[in-house]
Amino acid sequence: MRLGLALGYWGRGPSADHVPLAQEAERLGYHSVWTAESWGSDAFTPLTWIAARTSRIQLGTAVAQMAARSPTTTAMHALTLDHLSGGRMMLGLGLSGPQVVEGWYGRPFPKSPLTATREYVDVVRQVLRRGAPVELDGRFHSHPYRGGDGTGLGKALKPITHPLRAELPILLGAEGPKNIAQTTRIADGWLPLYWSPTRPQAYDASLADLPEVREGSSSHFLVAPMARARVCDDISEGLLPVKAMLGFYIGGMGHAGRNFHADLMARMGYAEEARHIQELFLSGRREEAVLAVPDAFADEISLVGPRERIAERLELWRKGPVTDLLVLAPDPHTLRVLAELNT
After folding, report:
1. What are 248-261's pLDDT values in tens digits?
2. Is the N or the C terminus of the chain less surrounded, counting Cβ atoms within 10 Å?
3. Which residues of 102-123 are buried (b: 16+ CB within 10 A; e: fewer)?
4. What is the DSSP letter of 189?
């Protein structure tokens, strides 16, 4: 199991720690570093900044939101950064949810998310392989555009720039069972939002056809969940940032009737707790929502506590299908301890 550093997205402004953390992770032998986006900072610009200040570590987006860019635009970002970094780019993509897609990006959330995802990945792969002009008679992504409000003058094109790698890895941040199952068929890897090494059966049906090696690729299918990590003596205190994240995602990152994160928590055995967190958060009682997150759930999807406890729990992560553990770590000490324990 390889280690990656997950930096997430910016809050109020850029973090002065991100580049030093990425450099320290590279020095410690971490395989990858990952950036993200929500409705503020984008995923690609900070990753490019990090690429210019590192030399070996792989560079991933976890995740770049599909609604933010057309698939050809995303492919342009990926092939450009892949060239500039010497072949270190890993493209992680995600649909996001209706509130963000319609509220922030001002476009409809696809009625058939599986189809929209499949078409998006198809177009990105066509660009990267550059075998022919990009053409797709899609429901959501038509190339050339054939809608009734167009001019009819669109022309199928190949990228001017020759991509450095035709098989640049594409990973998908999928949460629903059908979406995860499709991910194993069309992508090079999967980016689970929450992963519990003590209940992998939550994903058994979705991963039933997990390929060992993706067709046309020499690499194994990647399973790369994120987990917040912190070496500390007080476990309850160390879990507070995990609970704050869960309270926000489960309570506020979606509508009361359609929240993919809450649905996932329910499938992992915490249905009643997920509903309660939503009720508290949506009624404006946010602090109570965070405190209502069960310590047990926050603990099983993270690595928090003294070194000896983390060492013991890290063994559980190694036993399952996880190939890459993407660590949300707040300090260099935690990064160093994990690197030492994972050797």
Report:
1. 888 876 665 667 77
2. C
3. eeebeeebbeebbebbbbbbbb
4. E
